[in-house]
Specification:
CATH class of one domain: Alpha Beta
Radius of gyration: 25 Å
Number of helices: 4
Bound molecules: iron/sulfur cluster
Structural class: alpha+beta
CATH topology of one domain: Alpha-Beta Plaits
Order of helices and strands: HEHEEHEEH
Shape: elongated
Largest sheet: 3 strands, antiparallel
Distance between the termini: 73 Å
Strand content: 15-25%
Length: 145
């Protein structure tokens, strides 16, 4: 009697499983073959911060004021700037963020007076060393140009 019950339950389980497969077989695919294919992330997604590229200059607009650095609650931003001429505005010559300690609070992005910061769409961020989480924003911008 127990064996018949097992056969009936097993058969029913098989049919139920196959029914789910058959129902979904012609529906649009919602997964991607990662890492061969990448998803386009929603504009609301927050990867690490990065520089906005302005079409007028083809570059960032960071004046190295240090506001983002002062607002950052986890102190993960390092920025330095220099003037190219005596009376010119400062430009960031170095900008690093240690993303491994970033809480993605958004204070740096919200308070940047030149709107040069944004969140990237990067999502496959895994590291072998804690130092791999340090991102050079100037280098990233130059490489993307
Ligand atoms: S990113 Fe914005 S807030 Fe930060 S130093 Fe540059 S201009 Fe100032
Ligand atoms: S999002 Fe917040 S924690 Fe991350 S770098 Fe900006 S201010 Fe710092």
């Amino acid at each position: 009697m127990g064996m018949i019950k097992d056969i009936v339950e097993g058969g029913w389980s098989l049919i139920a499983g196959m029914w789910v497969t058959i129902r979904r077989i012609y529906r649009p695919v919602v997964t991607v073959q990662y890492p061969r294919k990448y998803l386009d992330m929603s504009p609301a997604y927050r990867g690490h911060i990065e520089f906005e590229q302005f079409p007028e200059t083809g570059s960032h607009n960071c004046v190295a004021c240090g506001t983002c650095m002062r607002f950052c609650p986890t102190n993960v931003i390092k920025v330095q700037g220099e003037k190219t001429h005596t009376h010119s505005e400062k430009r960031a010559s170095l900008y690093f963020i240690d993303f491994s300690h970033c809480s993605l609070c958004g204070l740096c992005v919200a308070n940047c007076p030149t709107q040069t910061l944004k969140f990237s769409g990067e999502y496959d961020l895994a590291y072998y060393s804690r130092w791999d989480g340090v991102v050079d924003l100037i280098q990233r911008l130059e490489e993307s140009a």
